[in-house]
């Protein structure tokens, strides 16, 4: 069998070469000695003895035979013949890890070259190649020519995201009619972790392991949280640092900017055990960038960025006589600002019978329990918003146990309805906010008021922490992100897995994703990686690949033909 060409094409090519070499040999110019009486007889001699004699008798067929063997050897070498013994009957899966582990010291390029060399010399009946990207891609299917692999790998690049090899390996089925052997090309720590958890019936071999670095320093965490000072328009930002074989970076070794400018006055920087804490950073929607002033041989973790939220107080208008508990929440909540009706973004209503609410604003409407509605009734605009809300009612402080306690106190069932309408609205029984009621005395009541009003306003979503290859850390319910068709199509259930490090746009909003992986930062400089035993593939001719052998034989044959020509044995 042949790796690059079919057997029929190889046979047809050999036949064509036979015809071409024979024709060229027959048309070859041959010398003949002729005695002439004088120069005037040249024209007569040329007519009698033509220089090319097609079809004449071969005086020395050895030259033709050597030329034919030479072109046949080169043709067979191009076809890459392989012995049947090279196929051991097992299923061989070659996995090239294209994760952040391979971004150090051109490790990915070296792994790619090793992969191409090994795949080219293995029969393709039970062989396939996988590129370990965010979603593993099949590069070479069984029975496909190995010559296709270099072109498909030409655009492949390692991506700044964690390795998915262990997760992929768990999906590989062992057993069956052919034993499965997985050849891994990547990082030593990834191989060691996967080997300990490999499925039964699957053999795992390290075919290439990137050499560990001597030292590495990096940023392993960057996240924001509500300010401890209770300022609604500010956040606290934590920066996590780590180092292997080198001291931990000091605050002076970091360059921290906000939208490309130094941090504004009023932001305090406090050193922590493994990083920094930045307090009262303005939450104006800017991008914070943290970077090491002096980089190293693994640059992907030398910098990180985070898009901060745009946090402005929500303007709320109060209409009617509201229960004291609701007024207290609105007065004490720093994220809410009570304004007049023309300035409001949302309104809270508690109208007397016969009064009608003012249209045009999303409304939290307190109604009497005798109105014939459920205790909690949410109006949404479409089915997607309904699904998002129904899956996250607990984030509003509503759960079955708490509703049961309220129902026992009121002596009637407490239900939750979600209906469709033209404008978002929340209707809730006013009796639930009685001063001695179970709902008011629970921690769920202020949470319900706060989250309901922000849900009605449709605040712009933001991610407090964005690490590559991990689920998006934010509440899909309380932000419009959960109602985006684009996001829901990419999500796994309620989890949106973030892409590789870089700046992205999700649901129309910017999102800055960073690597932020302590395991990778430490693992690329882990000396234990050098102890991983690499199982080298046998030499090409041992595995049945005869291309290199044929090239050597062709070279020897060419030298032999040249020596015979010098000695006059062949023309």
Automatic annotation (TrEMBL):
<keyword id="KW-0812">Transmembrane</keyword>
<feature type="transmembrane region" description="Helical">
    <location>
        <begin position="6"/>
        <end position="27"/>
    </location>
</feature>
<feature type="transmembrane region" description="Helical">
    <location>
        <begin position="62"/>
        <end position="84"/>
    </location>
</feature>
<protein>
    <recommendedName>
        <fullName>Aerotolerance regulator N-terminal domain-containing protein</fullName>
    </recommendedName>
</protein>
<keyword id="KW-1133">Transmembrane helix</keyword>
<keyword id="KW-0472">Membrane</keyword>
């Amino acid at each position: 069998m042949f790796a690059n060409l079919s057997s029929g094409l190889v046979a047809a090519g050999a036949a064509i070469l036979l015809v071409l070499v024979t024709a060229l040999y027959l048309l070859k110019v041959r010398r003949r000695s002729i005695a002439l009486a004088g120069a005037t007889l040249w024209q007569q001699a040329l007519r009698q003895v033509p220089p090319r004699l097609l079809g004449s008798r071969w005086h020395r067929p050895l030259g033709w035979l050597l030329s034919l063997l030479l072109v046949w050897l080169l043709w067979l070498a191009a076809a890459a013949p392989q012995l049947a013994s090279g196929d051991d009957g097992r299923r061989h899966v070659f996995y090239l890890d294209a994760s952040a582990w391979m971004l150090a010291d051109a490790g990915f390029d070296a792994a790619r070259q090793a992969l191409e060399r090994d795949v080219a010399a293995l029969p393709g009946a039970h062989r396939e190649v996988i590129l370990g990207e965010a979603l593993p891609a099949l590069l070479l299917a069984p029975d496909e020519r190995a010559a296709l692999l270099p072109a498909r790998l030409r655009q492949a690049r390692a991506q700044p995201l964690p390795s998915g090899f262990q997760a992929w390996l768990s999906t590989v089925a062992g057993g069956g009619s052919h034993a499965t052997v997985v050849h891994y090309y990547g990082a030593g720590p990834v191989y060691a972790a996967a080997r300990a958890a490999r499925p039964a019936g699957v053999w795992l071999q390290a075919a290439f392991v990137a050499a560990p670095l001597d030292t590495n320093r990096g940023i392993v965490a960057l996240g924001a949280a509500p300010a401890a000072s209770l300022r609604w328009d500010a956040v606290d930002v934590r920066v996590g640092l780590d180092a292997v074989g080198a001291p931990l970076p000091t605050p002076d070794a970091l360059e921290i900017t906000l939208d490309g400018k130094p941090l504004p006055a009023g932001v305090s920087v406090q050193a922590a055990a493994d990083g920094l804490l930045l307090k009262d950073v303005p939450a104006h929607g800017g991008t914070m960038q943290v970077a090491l002033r002096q980089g190293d041989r693994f640059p992907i973790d030398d910098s990180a960025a985070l898009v901060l939220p745009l946090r402005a107080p929500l303007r709320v208008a109060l209409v009617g006589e509201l229960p004291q508990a609701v007024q207290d929440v609105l007065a004490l909540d720093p994220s809410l600002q009570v304004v007049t009706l023309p300035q409001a973004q949302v309104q809270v209503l508690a109208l007397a019978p016969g009064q009608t609410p003012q249209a045009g604003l999303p409304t939290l409407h307190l109604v009497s329990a005798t109105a014939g509605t459920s205790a909690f009734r949410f109006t949404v605009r479409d089915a997607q918003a309904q699904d998002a809300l129904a899956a996250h009612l607990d984030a509003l402080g509503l759960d079955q146990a708490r509703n049961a306690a309220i129902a026992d106190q009121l002596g009637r069932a407490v239900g939750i309805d979600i209906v469709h309408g033209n404008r978002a609205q929340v209707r809730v029984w006013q009796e639930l906010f009685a001063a001695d009621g179970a709902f008011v005395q629970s921690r769920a009541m202020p949470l319900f008021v706060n989250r309901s009003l922000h849900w009605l306003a449709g605040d712009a979503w933001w991610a407090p922490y964005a690490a590559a290859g991990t689920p998006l850390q934010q509440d899909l319910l309380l932000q419009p992100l959960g109602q985006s068709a684009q996001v829901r199509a990419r999500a796994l259930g309620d989890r949106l897995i973030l892409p590789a490090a870089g700046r992205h746009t999700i649901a129309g909003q910017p999102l800055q994703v960073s690597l932020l992986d302590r395991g990778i930062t430490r693992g690329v400089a882990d000396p234990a990686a050098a102890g991983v035993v690499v199982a080298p593939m046998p030499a090409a001719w041992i595995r049945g690949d005869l291309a290199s052998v044929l090239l050597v034989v062709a070279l020897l044959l060419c030298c032999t033909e040249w020596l015979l020509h010098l000695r006059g044995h062949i023309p």
